[in-house]
Write a structure and sequence with these properties.
52% helix; globular
Amino acid sequence: MIRWGVYCEDEGDSKTLRAFVLRVLSEIGADWVRVQLDLDASGATLIEWNSHKLKDISARIRALDVRPLHGHFNRRPAEDGAAQARNAWHLERAIAQKSSDPAMMTDVVFVLRDADGKRSERADGQRQALLVATDHDHPCTKPTLLAALAIEEREAWVLAALVPNDEERRRLDAQRKSTGLQLDEDLDQLGNDGPTSPRDLKRVLAAIVGDDAEARELESIELVPVEQLARRGERVGLWSALESIASWWIRCQPECVDRERYQGFTRTR
């Protein structure tokens, strides 16, 4: 059982990330992993998924009576979110140290944030946290910190993975006219601009998929061609996130991965 501690802004982000983690496994997994996913599409027999909200990190650290990490990163001031990501990793380490069962240690701490118009600062913050939280001599030391930035929001990842049906294709064409965008490789030009804006991500997604957004999202992630994920996901942070997930699997859980499939996945772009 592989244990993931996931820190996101809300539950929708966690569900989306889980679906993408399983999609990566379905692409690069060894035969026995793919069989297991066929038997249990939820992946619950392979991954224990523990989801938390980013805003709760400080309170959970205080509840454990653990000293939070502050200050500079390699003599540089902390960028946006650097301390938060590092403290998520610090929290999971502290939980393991206080546990009487070392086997329950979290394998991966994954921090997912929206860019929300601050993509440069938040990307720098995640790089700072990754740099100081990684044991470069032993990169699979538990827990391993991974981080991703959804540009500008998670909804862009959903749109990158969308395989529209006939009705959604008509709605998509209407949104292309409304936004002035192709809504393909230019998804990063949508943002968090409010429900009246033609280029608001949440508005555009809702206008295309309607009220059944979550079910359609998970269905599309399962079925979308990897080539589409690479093309549409390149500029919204999705493809780099998928690459980091795949890299962790082959580096730290190689028995779960088919090397040839992994190489094919990494060559997609």
